[in-house]
Amino acid sequence: CSKLESIIIPENVTIIKKCLFLSCTNLVSITFEGNITFIDDSAFNNCTKLESISLPYSLQAIGERTFLMCSNLRNLSLSDNLISIGRNAFERCSNLVSIAIPEKITEIKMQVFENCYELQSVEFRGNILSLGFQAFKYCFNLRSLEIPDTVTNIRGSCFMGCNKLYSIVFPKNF
Q1: Cα–Cα distance between 172 and 174 in angstroms, integer?
Q2: What is the pTM of this model?
Q3: N or C: which end of the chain has fewer CB within 10 A?
Q4: How many angstroms separate the CA atoms of 98 and 121, rounded?
Q5: Which residues contact 91 (CB under 8 A, 6 or more apart)?
Q6: Looking at residues 44-71, what average pLDDT do you find?
């Protein structure tokens, strides 16, 4: 699919299968017209020209490595209905600048945002309980972070290599 530049996902599609658009290196845009509930593992992995994506409200789960190496992804809007983001889902999205984690997400899994070099801002909107192993590793431009009161576990190397991180506000009960 190296020549594919745009995709319109029709309303009758509810699941995007594993590796479906893997390495569509010229894919620039995706339009969701319907009620997608799940995007499976590596579905858009290595879509290096993808710049912006607005995930539909119906989306409940993103699989592992789903957007891995989407290196030009700058704008990402996560659905408020999202309840799960798989490991390495946005790893190496090196131009992603900010992310708001929906309130139904309770865990940032292992390496979800690793090597998101340009990530500057992370907003936790809900009841995060755990930040996974290397979840924000090498997010070089992450400057500050406020850990929600609900967090009870931060796994090893979570902020490894975050060289510009000057402030982390921990909850009083941590």
Answers
A1: 6
A2: 0.95
A3: C
A4: 5
A5: 65, 68, 69, 111, 112, 113, 114, 115, 116
A6: 96
